[in-house]
Write the structure tokens for this entry.
Amino acid sequence: MRRCSVADTFAAAARENRAALLAFLTAGYPSPALTPSLIEAACAGGADIIELGFPYSDPLADGPIIQASSQRALDWGLTFDGVLAIASQLTLSTPLLAFTYYNPLFVRGLARSAEDLASAGFAGAIVPDLPLEESSALAAALHAHGLALTLLVSPTTPPERARKIAERSDIFVYAVSRTGVTGTHAGVGAALSDRIAVLRKFTSKPLAVGFGVATAQDAHPIADIADGVVVGSALMRAAQGSEPARAVEGLCAALARACVRISSPA
């Protein structure tokens, strides 16, 4: 099945006066066999875009929940090729993004990684530990296969550097809501609205906000100022239960409802 583009997905959400819901799921958690059903459940619940996390032994940007899910996937023996195989088998139209650290891409080879991601049906990659100054080679490799690169803007990123990161990010910009790693603090930073306003001066690309978004109460105010809401640790926590697919679908449904805006974003 042909997948919708990321750009079209953000545009469709904007027409419906809502923020897109980006659901992060670690491939291989709670097991490789269950991963496709969790992706399907997230989409059934209303996720607009799936970020599929590639298990990695040193996920610096991730908190304890996603770190544990990544280690569990590695314990299952899931490899880069194994994640590609999972992605290749999906029949959903929802866009799929690879969330991966730079080292696995570098070791595999940037050109080979980009070609393999494209063949598996990914629309692009989010690389949280890739410095702006070192991003040109990966961007070129991805672009050669029609894939997009997304970099992260943190709360401590100076405005001029944020502008350059926004320029480098192809389709949307990932705005980190607060300092720290994922899943360790509830809620988002108090200065987020001001930072989003500054970013909008630099770029017309959609802005997606992640880190610290766990509940509908967290998502709703973000949806009023941003174009996308990213949820990860809360979904991995939901997947720990006895009915992971049902829990993931239910949480995504609540979050999707919360992404409907009270007003249009500034």
In short: The first strand starts at residue 20 and ends at 26. DSSP finds twelve helices and nine strands in the chain. Residues 47 and 61 are 22 Å apart (CA to CA).
